[in-house]
Design a protein that fits this description.
This protein is mostly helical. About 45% of the residues lie in helices and about 0% in strands. Keywords: Membrane, Transmembrane, Transmembrane helix.
């Protein structure tokens, strides 16, 4: 008698999903949100009147990223 490679649904063991507590995820989510906001600021708004650093070195460093993400800068 040939045996099937796929077990029958009645005999297949279904593992329980892993539960991750919110208090373990929340600090990483806040960190990711703050980091994302800082990156968007430097790529999208670090020039002109809102500039934190003097000069144009941040603008020139993020220049191609601005155009790739659709931010106008010229």
């Amino acid at each position: 008698m040939a045996q099937s490679a796929v077990p029958a649904p009645e005999t297949a063991a279904h593992p329980a999903p892993v539960r991750i507590p919110l208090r373990e995820v929340l600090p990483w989510a806040v960190f990711a949100a703050v980091l994302g906001a800082v990156l968007i600021y430097f790529i999208g708004a670090e020039q002109g009147a809102t500039s934190v650093f003097s000069g144009t070195w941040v603008h020139e460093f993020t220049h191609d990223g601005r155009h790739l993400l659709g931010f106008p800068c010229h």
